[in-house]
Design a protein that fits this description.
The chain has 262 residues and is of the alpha/beta class. The chain has a single domain, classed as Hexapeptide repeat proteins (UDP N-Acetylglucosamine Acyltransferase, domain 1, 3 Solenoid). It has five helices and 25 strands. A hairpin with a 4-residue loop joins strand 24 and strand 25. The longest helix has 15 residues. It is globular and about 70 Å long.
């Protein structure tokens, strides 16, 4: 389990409200993430010229020119049309990654590392990865179904070969609500972190809550809400999710049946 990340710091939104800045400076802080006119112009020119280019030509141009603003882009990367990027200097993309249209990669934060997408991963259409001063690490060959959402106030890590079905939510943080008469958005936030193991399958519309780990080789049923740790090899269903089976039990049962048949 990741260490609890609970500290008082000004979120960028609050900082923009409290500090008198020009519109260009405020936009640069929120979207670009680096100070200076040169960084702003480079971001605006590259995204303005190539973000909406359709077809194979657009994918080719983005694979070439987005290298100038991203932290890293590997070989064979395909970035679809209308992908929104924020703080791109904190986004690393491995080899042979495919990012479908209308995805959002938001690495925004004050002191975070950002987003790291491993080799061979796929992000489905309309997926949102949002760093709220946290980090998101997707290991090799992670497959994220369309309209999924990953948020991180600390660290969200997804193991290799894990599958997300459509509309899966991973909620890596939240607001403290101790004070009744202070707006929730002005109270402290908490982020315990989430770790999802390797070779897992998260069913459609499943939700993983902050502070929960999902063990290796586990399956989370469609619509389940995970509110506590799920052991390795588990099948968990329901609201809240409960373990109903160990996947290894079927292997033992099949082996016994095979022996009886002989």
């Amino acid at each position: 389990m990741a260490e609890v990340k609970e500290k008082k710091y000004e979120l960028i939104q609050n900082a923009l409200e409290k500090k008198k800045k020009s519109k260009a400076s405020a936009y640069s802080d929120l979207i670009v993430g680096r100070p200076g006119l040169c960084s702003l112009l480079k971001y605006e020119i590259i995204t303005g010229m190539f973000a909406e280019c359709p077809g194979a030509l657009g994918i080719l141009l983005r694979s070439i020119f987005y290298r100038l603003i991203f932290k890293k882009i590997g070989k064979g990367v395909m970035i679809g049309k209308s992908v929104t990027i924020r703080h791109p200097h904190k986004i690393s993309i491995g080899n042979n990654v495919a990012i479908d249209e209308n995805v959002m990669l938001d690495a925004k934060g004050v002191d975070n590392n950002g987003i790291d997408i491993g080799d061979g991963s796929f992000l489905g259409r309309n997926t949102i990865i949002s760093c709220k001063n946290g980090d998101v690490i997707l290991h090799e060959k992670v497959n994220i179904g369309f309209n999924s959402y990953i948020a991180s106030l600390n660290r969200v890590e997804v193991g290799q070969n894990t599958l997300f079905a459509a509309y899966t939510y991973v909620i890596g943080g939240g607001h403290i609500s101790d004070e009744i008469y202070i707006p929730l958005r002005d109270q402290d936030t908490h982020g315990h972190g989430i770790k999802i193991g390797r070779d897992c399958w998260l069913g459609a519309k499943s939700i993983i809550m902050d502070g929960c780990n999902v063990g290796d080789y586990s399956i989370i049923g469609a619509g389940a809400i995970v509110t506590k740790n799920i052991p390795d090899f588990s099948i968990a269903v329901g609201t809240p999710a409960r373990v109903v089976k160990d996947r290894r039990a079927k292997k033992v049962e099949d082996a016994e049946n095979t022996g009886q048949d002989k």
